[in-house]
Amino acid sequence: MLEIHDLHVEIGGIEIIHIDELxxxxxxxxxxxxxxxxxxxxxxxxxxxLLPDEAKVSGSVxxxxxxxxxxxxxxxxxxRGKQIGLVFQDPARSLNPMMRIGRQVSESVRLHTxxxxxxxxxxxxxxxxxxxxxxxxxxxxxxxxxxxxxxxQRAMIAAAIASDPELLIADExxxxxxxxxxEEILRLLIALSEQRKxxxxxVSHDLGVIRFVCDRVAVIYGGRIIETGRTEDVISNPxxxxxxxxLAANPGMPGDDNYSAFIGRRLHTIQGSVPAVGNFPSxxxxxxxxxxxxxxxxxxxKQVIVGSDHRYSCWNPVAEG
Length: 321
Hints:
Largest sheet: 8 strands, mixed
Structural class: alpha/beta
Strand order of the largest sheet: 6-7-8-3-9-10-12-11
Helix content: 25-40%
Number of strands: 12
Distance between the termini: 32 Å
Mean pLDDT: 90
């Protein structure tokens, strides 16, 4: 479905992203997780061809057999919306406040199909119903400001799946929503993925959300993938020190078997903060914040494979549980 090999992104001569390999299988949900500034959104935008003009991109991003990096703007425009749907984190900023919801959701349908006007309207009503918006025919005529944040995000998801894409890129789609609405949107994305056999690249800073949504996870830091594998394998047995630190700083989610263990407990914090672009240390990008760093960490760690597909790159990994 989606295969990334040796992806490099530079802006102003500074390397932002360097991903050796990342694979998303058909019909699966892959979480890309890391702190703000770790490179997850830039990776997603590189896949979608939405990086700024000054960005220099090299490597290979193959989707459905075609290399997206070799495509021109017109070719990419055909792929985006038709084969790749996009959902962003703030629907209020993504939706046009001057256009009715129906027109915005219908845009992709009109661009990528030859349906007549009545058929397009019927399709949009069907889509708004599929994302569980009440009274779809009324929502069709409303403007974004007349919807709640959760309803706006549902409308964005409807627009993203309007042309039956094979891949959905969701960039922190629930960050601006309260916890109750967040869970509803997450369950909706899971249901749509399963019903439509839709592959999902889900970008988040929250491992609890990733665990809830995704089959597989890729942990990113400093623009590099440092650990990947089945979500449960990585969360139950993290090997990279950064992954373990993220988990220790996560309060869990209600419904988790071990959620009660977090109540009243002081949360662990990761020392320091994510360095500015261009200021990551050589070798292991996390070593200046890692409590377990040694002199060996000044060199780039090699990838280690545990079992069939749990991979990590760390000189001083967490002991296998």
